[in-house]
Design a protein that fits this description.
Radius of gyration: 16 Å
Strand content: 5-15%
Structural class: alpha+beta
Number of helices: 1
Largest sheet: 2 strands, antiparallel
Strand order of the largest sheet: 1-4
Order of helices and strands: EEEEH
C-alpha cells in the first residue's frame, strides 16, 4: 500500500507500530458492546469549553464520515464553533 507521500504503508492486526506516533501515546479504552465501537464519553472539549454536561455514549467508526450526537449537544457544538 502507498499513501499520499508515496511512502510504503502497512496494516497491523493486534498491535500498533509506535515508531509512527509523534508526541502522543496510544490509549486503549473498553467498548460498551462487543459488536460496535461504542464507548462511554465523559467529556467532550472544544478549545477550553466542555460541551457535555453529562456522560454520553459515542460510536466511533473510522470509515464513517459523520458525527452523530443528540440534537442539544450538536447545537452546543455549533454555538461554540
Amino acid at each position: 500500500m502507498r499513501n499520499q507521500t508515496d511512502t510504503p504503508s502497512q496494516i497491523r492486526f493486534g498491535a500498533a507500530n509506535t515508531n509512527l506516533f509523534e508526541g502522543t501515546q496510544l490509549h486503549r479504552i473498553d467498548t460498551l458492546n462487543k459488536d460496535t465501537w461504542q464507548v462511554k464519553l465523559a467529556q467532550l472539549d472544544f478549545g477550553t469549553e466542555n460541551l457535555l454536561n453529562t456522560t454520553a455514549v459515542a460510536v466511533m467508526n473510522p470509515s464513517f464520515p459523520f458525527i452523530a450526537a443528540p440534537f442539544d449537544h450538536v447545537q452546543a457544538f455549533k454555538n461554540v464553533v
